[in-house]
Amino acid sequence: MLTVDVRSPVTIEWLPPTANVDGSNLEDLAGFRIYQGSESRNYDDFLQITDPGATRHDVLLRSGRHFISMTAFDTAGNQSIFSNEVVRSTP
After folding, report:
1. Element (H, E) at 35
2. CA gap 73, 58 in Å, rounded
């Protein structure tokens, strides 16, 4: 689950996955990618976090409306499906 705190900078918090898509235990989590774009599900930028233990990150956004989602990836580079999407407008 992805949440966004409305203060600036934007704080993104998440719960790391514990299982693979097939239900087996996730034992090789390598990090996360936070995606953002100006249109829903059309992301033009991402930030990679290589700390598999991370559960939050502060992101500075330029003015405008931002659609934000994230994925997790493992040591082989396999990427999860996108998380729920949140929308944040900044002045």
Report:
1. strand 29-37
2. 19
